[in-house]
Amino acid sequence: MFLSNDAKLIYSFLCNQCPNKKVVTYGTVSKNTNVPLGEGGGAVRDALAEIFKKSDAAKLPPITSIVVQEANLYDRKMRYGMPGGGYLSAEAQSPNFANRPRQAGIERWADKPRPKDTEVWVFQKMIEQHQDLVWDYQGAWPSAL
C-alpha cells in the first residue's frame, strides 16, 4: 500500500526540511503542501499518521516527530518542540520496528482516545530523543515509503 497524495506531499516536504535540523509547525506544513488543517489537525493529522506507520515499517527515524504545535515551540534554535497528542497515540500503537527509545507510560495511550495536546510534555525527553534520531539520520531519506 502506498501513501495517499496528501501524505506524499507532506513526506516530501519533511524530507526537504531535515537538513535544516529545525522543527516545523502544523501550519507551516499545511501552508507549504496545501494539505488542509481542520478540527484536530484534519488532513495533515491523517497524513502524518500514515507517514509515521510507513516510516516505522521501513525502520526509519520518526520524521513526523519534527511537526510541532506553534504554541509548543520552546527551543530558540527550533531543534525541539512538542507535537500534538496524536503523536503519542501513534507511538503507543506502533510495533516500534525502528527501535525508538520509549518512555515508561506511553503504553497507556495504545487503547485510549487521543491524549490532550498538553499531555505531550510528560514525554518531552522521549520526543526530543525522537527528534534527535531524525536530525542524526545519516542515510538518504527514501523518495517514497
Structural class: mainly alpha
Largest sheet: 2 strands, parallel
Low-confidence stretches: none
Rg on CA atoms, Å: 14 Å
Task: Please give the domain count.
Answer: 1
| Secondary-structure element pattern, one letter each | HEHHEHH
The number of strands is 2
Q: Major sheet: order of its strands?
A: 1-2
- DSSP summary: helix tally: 5
- Proportion of beta-strand residues: under 5%
Silhouette: globular
**Could you tell me how far the N terminus lies from the C terminus, measured between alpha carbons in angstroms?**
9 Å
Q: Taking all residues together, what is the mean pLDDT? A: 92
What portion of residues is helical? 40-55%
Protein architecture, described:
The structure is a single chain. The chain has a two-stranded parallel ribbon with strand order 1-2. 41% of the residues lie in helices and 3% in strands. The model has no long low-confidence stretch (mean pLDDT 92). With 145 residues, it is mostly helical. It starts with a helix and ends in a 9-residue tail after the last helix. The chain has one domain (5-136). It is built from five helices and two strands; from the N terminus they run αβααβαα. Helix 1 crosses helix 2 (26-33), helix 1 crosses helix 3 and helix 3 runs parallel beside helix 4. The longest helix has 16 residues, at 42-57. The chain has helices at residues 5-17, 26-33, 42-57, 85-93, 124-136; strands at residues 24-25, 67-68.
SSE layout and pairing:
Elements: H1 5-17, E1 24-25, H2 26-33, H3 42-57, E2 67-68, H4 85-93, H5 124-136
Helix pairs in contact: 1-2, 1-3, 3-4
